[in-house]
Design a protein that fits this description.
The chain has 438 residues and is of the alpha/beta class. The strands form three sheets. An eight-stranded mixed beta sheet has the order 3-2-1-4-5-6-7-8, sandwiched between helices. Strands 10-9-13-14-15 form a five-stranded parallel beta sheet, with helices on both faces. The chain contains 14 helices and 15 strands. Helix 5 runs parallel beside helix 6 and helix 11 packs across helix 12. It is 41% helix and 15% strand. It has two domains: 209 residues, NAD(P)-binding Rossmann-like Domain (Rossmann fold); 211 residues, Rossmann fold, CATH 3.40.50. Bound molecules: ligand SAJ. The site of ligand SAJ has 21 residues, from helix 8.
């Protein structure tokens, strides 16, 4: 039996049954894209609420419309379950689980290990398994493959196929989606890469085959490390311009007029999200095990992690110029999500800024139209109900996340003082007596 031919035929005639492990911001968009392409898709997630929502035709991911989920469920192309044994009948399994950090700062591989073990338990000849979670180079070959071979006794590249294909989801983005964003795919063996690429090629616009799982794993980490380091660069630029008395925003805008050889990044209160601040640390962790220090990653992380403290220093200085101590001052933080126009709080620098302000004795409130409440460590706050009332009562408004739906001119008019960490006010805030920018 040639399983490569058998699987290729199933992908070509869209009779393939695809299981997606993990129905988060990566797994659910992929599930609907595969189902829309004609595959029969079963999403598996241990969280019953997610499974029930999908079965009821509801989406909990902003980038996936509920109408699309409802239609696909009704057509029988998409379903969801908590039962991992559906892997028994799968032709393809995509693993889209989180890869966070432990409290120690080391990679938390528990989600990958758990998904791997579920696959190992139910796998059969003639299936392809693809890991999509951002992780260190070597994960697929060193951590996933041995357990699958040991559990099944099958031969990789012949009886089953194993590949890595990094997700490239930018939450909230509409121009580049799961369907049209080029997809890198690398296999444990050449045949693994070919089979995995075939699966994606009938659902996604562009598939980019590479020679191994390590190349695919490392390409993803390069993408995110590139962002981490360039954000760290402009954050340090903000600190340097602060010392020089130069407007960092004007400097960056001027540099960005260069039509080649430059890519604009902007400074901010820190680096949030579950990818950029975290994925590169998987790489530096792996390199430490090989007795090498990834200097750029460690330096950029140090600078980015320090930005909340830098912001609180700016607030303290701004209040000081008005003869007000930070202690006891009423501070309103605007925007808590980790980046504009989304409802995700993970690793958000707003949490650090609020925590530091509270540590210094400030009376801190926050507002975020997407985040009704923050319950994190020692912080338990509700988004203030009346934004403008709170702006008027604050000694200082700190813009931490520049959501597009804020009325910045009105906020500026009503506020006593604004520390704008995102240049949200734009030219309004330049040289304005009430505005302090990074
Ligand atoms: N940030 C800055 N300055 C910048 C750009 C971003 O301070 O110039 C901050 C943001 O405010 C945010 C953090 O960095 O707190 C991360 O922002 P991001 O948009 O780079 O990261 P994510 O996690 O929302 O999404 C990224 C994707 N982003 C883009 O490509 C624009 C992409 O790199 C990955 O597909 C995704 O992470 C992932 O899953 O790895």
């Amino acid at each position: 039996m040639d399983f490569q031919i058998e699987l290729t035929n199933k992908f070509q005639n869209h009779s393939a049954r695809v299981v997606i492990l993990g129905l988060g911001y990566v797994g659910l968009p992929l599930a609907v894209v595969f189902a829309d392409a004609g595959y029969t898709v079963i999403g598996v997630d241990p969280i019953r609420e997610k499974v029930d929502a999908i079965q009821q035709g509801k989406s909990y991911i902003a980038d996936v419309p509920s109408e699309q989920v409802a239609r696909l469920v009704k057509e029988g192309k998409l379903s969801a379950t908590v039962d991992f044994s559906v892997i028994r009948d799968a032709d393809a399994v995509s693993i889209c689980v989180p890869t966070p950090l432990l409290k120690t700062g080391d990679p938390d591989l528990s989600f990958i290990v758990s998904a791997r073990d579920s696959v190992a338990k139910y796998m059969h000849p003639g299936m392809v398994i693809i890991l999509e979670s951002s992780t260190y180079p070597g994960t697929t070959r060193e951590l996933v493959l041995p357990k699958l071979v040991e559990a099944s006794g099958l031969v990789v590249g012949k009886d089953f196929f194993l590949a890595f294909s990094p997700e490239r989801v930018d939450p909230g983005r509409e121009d580049w989606t799961t369907v049209n964003t080029p997809r890198v795919v690398g296999g444990i063996t050449p045949a693994c890469g070919v089979v995995a690429a075939e699966l994606y090629s009938h659902a996604l616009k562009t598939v980019i085959p590479v020679s191994s799982v390590e190349v695919a794993e490392m390409a993803k980490l390069l993408e995110n490390t590139f962002r981490l380091i360039n954000i760290g660069l402009v954050n340090e630029l903000a600190i340097m311009c602060n010392r020089l008395g130069v407007d960092v925003w004007e400097v960056i805008d001027a540099a960005a007029t260069k039509p080649f050889g430059f890519m604009k990044f902007t400074p901010g209160p820190g680096l949030g999200g579950h990818c950029i601040p975290i994925d590169p640390l998987y790489l530096s962790w792996k390199l430490r095990s090989l007795n090498y220090t990834a200097k750029f990653i460690e330096l950029a992380s140090e600078i980015n992690t320090n930005m909340p403290r830098f912001v609180v220093g700016k607030v303290q200085d701004a209040l000081n110029d008005q003869r007000k101590p930070l202690k006891g001052s009423r501070i309103l933080v605007l925007g808590a999500a980790y980046k504009p126009d989304i409802d995700d709080l993970r690793e958000s620098p707003a949490i650090d800024v609020i925590g530091l302000l509270k540590q210094k004795g400030a009376d801190v409130q926050y507002h975020d139209p997407y985040i009704p409440a923050i319950d994190h460590d020692a912080i338990s706050l509700q988004s203030v109900p009346d934004l403008m009332e709170s702006v008027r009562h604050a000694d200082c408004v700190v813009i931490v996340t520049n959501h597009a739906n804020y009325d910045y001119p009105s906020i500026l008019e009503s506020a006593a003082l604004v520390v704008d960490t995102r240049n949200a006010m734009g030219t309004l805030g330049r040289n304005h007596p009430k505005v302090v920018r990074l």
